[in-house]
Amino acid sequence: MDGDRPPPGWLFSGAEDVLLSVLTDAPSDVVEQAHEYRILRSILDGTPAAVAVMDERLRYRYVNAAMGRMSGVEPSAFHGRTMAEVLPGIHRSDEILRMVLNDGRPRALSLTGTTEDSSPFTHRQWSAVYHRLEHEGRPLGLCGVAVEVSGLRQYMDDLEKAHQRLAMLDTAATRIGTTLQVDRTCAELADFVVPTLADMSSVWTLDDEATDAPPPAPGVVRLRITAAAGGDDILRRLGLIAKKGDYFDVPRDSHTRRCMDKGSPWVGNLLTDDVLLKVVQTRFNLEVIRTAEIHSVLLVPLPTKGHPIGVVYLFRAGGSAPFTDEDVIVTQDLAARAAVAIDNARQYTLEHTMALELQRALLSEPGSPHPDIEVACRYLPAGRRALVGGDWCDSIALPSGGILQVMGDVMGHGFTAAVAMSQYRSLLRTLAVSGAPVDRILAEADHRVASIGVDRVATCLLALIDPDSGTCTVASAGHPPPVLLHREAPAELVPVTAGPPLGTDLGGHEAVTVPLPPGEVLLLYTDGLVEQRHMDIDASLRRLTDLSLDVDAPLEDVLGTVLARLVYGPAEDDVTLLAARLRAT
Question: By C-alpha distance, which of 297, 300, 296, 298 is closest to 264?
Answer without folding.
Answer: 300
